[in-house]
Amino acid sequence: MPYSYEPHYFEDLDVGQTFESAGRTVTETDFALHSMFTGDWTELHTNKEYSEDGPFGERIAQGPMTFILSTGLFQRTGIVERTVVAFLGMNYMDLPSAVRIGETISCEFEVAEKRDLESRDDAGLVVVDVVTSNHEGEVKLEGDMKFLFKNRE
């Protein structure tokens, strides 16, 4: 799948169209910054010794952190730059596998649905399916994201 770095308006998107993000290696700093920003200092995520004896054998990212990284990778595709009015939520989000420090993740995005809205004449609803995987192909997040994309003027 080709990378895309140009903004896309509602009219530019077609159901079935796909986009691939760049890769990103998750770091110790990411873990610390996420905990600082959210206030979530759960030891499973922040205490090396504690987590080594836990169910994963090492620290893992908070589930919301995996989601936040995925939204950042969507922004890096460039298609939402100055064309997204709002993020409206998700119908579902599954986290089948934990993200660990040192993993490189990337995302595949597919336009699953789009529709005009009677309540708006300046934007339309676009639902984007996302699959976030690590460098070994292990799925870390699956879900959909709902956006309002601007119409062309």
From TrEMBL:
Pfam families: MaoC_dehydratas. Residues 15-120 form the MaoC-like domain. It comes from the Archaea. Gene3D superfamilies: Hotdog Thioesterase. InterPro entries: HotDog_dom_sf, MaoC-like_dom, MCH/BMMD. SUPFAM superfamilies: Thioesterase/thiol ester dehydrase-isomerase. PANTHER family: BETA-METHYLMALYL-COA DEHYDRATASE, MONOAMINE OXIDASE-RELATED. This is MaoC domain-containing protein dehydratase. It comes from Halococcus thailandensis JCM 13552.
